[in-house]
Amino acid sequence: MMQSPLADVRVVDLSELLPGPYATQLLGDLGATVIKVERPAGDNARAMLPGLFAAVNRGKESVVIDLKSEDGRRRFRDLVADADVMVEGFRPGVAERLGVDYATLSKINPRLVYVSLTGYGQQGAMADQPGHDLNYLAASGVLGLMPPPEPGRPHGLGLPVGDLAGSMFAVVSVLAALMQRQHSGRGQYLDVSITDALSHWMTPRLGMILRDGAGQMHQRPGYGFFQCADGRMLVLAAMEDHFWTRLVDLLDLAEFAGPAFATYRQRQAAFEAIKARLDQEFRAQPLAAWLKQLQAHDIPANGLATPEETLDDPEGRVIGRDGKDLIARFPVPMHALPPAARHAPALGAHTPDPGANILLRAGTAEVEARS
Predict the structure, then answer these.
(1) Which residues are part of the catalytic machinery?
(2) Tens of pLDDT along 278-311?
(3) 234: exposed, middle or buried (C-beta count within 10 Å: 0-12, 13-18, 19+)?
(4) What residues pair up with 319 in beta bridges, in sequence order?
(5) For residue 134, what is the enclosing H or E element?
(6) Where does the chain hold its CATH 3.30.1540.10 domain(s)?
(7) pLDDT tens column, 213-249
(8) I want to staple 347 with a disulfide (CB 3.0 to 4.6 A). Which of 42, 122, 296, 339 is the partner?
(9) If we measure between CA atoms, which residue out of 55, 99, 54, 58 comes closest to residue 80?
(10) The whole model's pTM is what?
């Protein structure tokens, strides 16, 4: 019988809130055993954001360990001795003070892949500063791509893109480090900075800015949101020349049909005029009518779905719900993946009896006591 891709990988997760837990959730979705080590009060997200906690801790085991006590540190070291990966999100210096830093744990387990996932990384002027997704988006220039925010008002992208970027780079790095370990026999330390992850995701935009200037970033003819007759929003993405030609034919945009508008660069010069005309055209019919016509002409278009609508989409392959419980599948079909309908653990649900050591059994989501 085929095993899941990470069936033999054992992960110890010391992180809280979103970036670290989402990274270890992805590893768990690929079949890794994930043991969530929580302080006695539990992950802050349990009280602050219970829905988020439930979403990014599905199928994990919860073990309560007080790292401020010598017994707690002993129990944690015992746990890490059997682990392949450890993830923490402390500010620089905290793990060392607690005695759970890479230098200490790698002596116990030289094969350990140790991840520090923080906002600004372990080095640099900002390394010791606190932060959240919005701060990292600002520091990396991502928010600079958007119109200036109104002072004092909430601002962001809705989705915590920075936190998730850090999570993804953590996962990619872990998988690469595990591959390297097959040849070297040793683990390694991974310093994952959320701001650096976002900076790397900025490379397509920065390349455009260096070549063409920042102004053209907001001039995308045939690309954007347009209000329809019923007040609903149409999302159109007719950027390429062949899509534009089809749109011109469908809407009879004769003034934009000549050789002067044959290429995307040429159309950028007429961005405002094109936008005004499209705004006018799409107000003439309701969204459903436009979608039927645009999709029949093979032009990229769809409506603006709400998050709630995605949960109930009959064609949804990744996301769903069971009452108030989220169902999430790994978005790439693979052999022998764990079931999607898994729940987050209760605090300390898998903590052994006091005084016992902890054994992490490979390939299963179990923690046992051993004397």
Answers:
(1) 132, 163
(2) 999 999 999 999 999 999 999 999 999 999 999 9
(3) buried
(4) 328
(5) helix 133-139
(6) 223-308
(7) 877 778 899 999 999 999 999 999 999 999 999 999 9
(8) 42
(9) 99
(10) 0.91
